[in-house]
Amino acid sequence: MFKRILLTFTMLLLFAAPSSADTPMDVIQTAVEEIVGLLKDPQFDPPEKKEEQREKIWNVVHNIFDFQTIARGTIRRHDWESFSEEQKKEFTDLFTTLLGNTYLERLQSDYRDEQVEFTEQEMLSDTTAIVRTKIIRESLETPVDYRLILRGETWRIYNVIVENISLVTNYRDQFSQMLMRDSPAQLIEKLRDRVNKNES
Tell me, what's the pLDDT at 101? Predict the structure, then answer.
């Protein structure tokens, strides 16, 4: 199920309908155009160019996802308080790398010609919003919600919910179980091992 969530929000970034300026949808649309352009650029067809393509896509993705908020949300508050400031930073950096590596791998390898329909943009406040969508694969429609927060003058994604299953909650459940038996240092070490394994 978790792999399905990652694949689904990967697909969501690839197609978006135009929207009025200065909306959460508009920010996503700009990023989509850059990502699709990179994916379709023939200069990245050779295998030896894939890493360069990956880095360019990552620059775009990093600008629209609030990875710090996502990472913080994966640890329950009482557990987070047991992390030192140095551990908080290291956990955030490692988690961002892990999620980014997984995202980019699926983006480059699993993209197909899915369609995304944006059904509603709901402003929860001046600084938070939900973009409701559905991904259409042949006859299957999958509801996906993007949760966004305004950071400075830029809307950033801080959670993705696929068929009522939250990306952040999925990780939070995993990490909570690990922290029942492991210390923050041990959790960070396991994350580091996973990152190193993915990059090897």
Answer: 85
Indicate whether 30 belongs to any domain: yes
* Terminal Cα-to-Cα distance of the chain (whole angstroms): 25
Q: Structural domain tally of the chain?
A: 1
Q: How far, CA to CA in Å, does 177 sit from each of 3, 18, 78? A: 19, 42, 14
Beta-carbon contacts of 171 under 8 Å, excluding residues fewer than 6 positions away, are: 74, 95
**What's the CATH code of the domain at 164?**
3.10.450.710
Is 146 a residue whose pLDDT tops 60?
Answer: yes
Does some domain include residue 150? yes
Span 27-45, pLDDT tens digits: 777 776 787 778 778 898 8
Q: What is the pTM of this model?
A: 0.79
Closest alpha carbon to 39 in 107, 130, 88, 127:
107
In a domain, 187, yes or no: no
Q: Which residue has the tokens 């409701």?
A: 132
Residue 151 lies in a domain: yes
Pairwise CA distance, residues 173 & 167, whole Å: 10
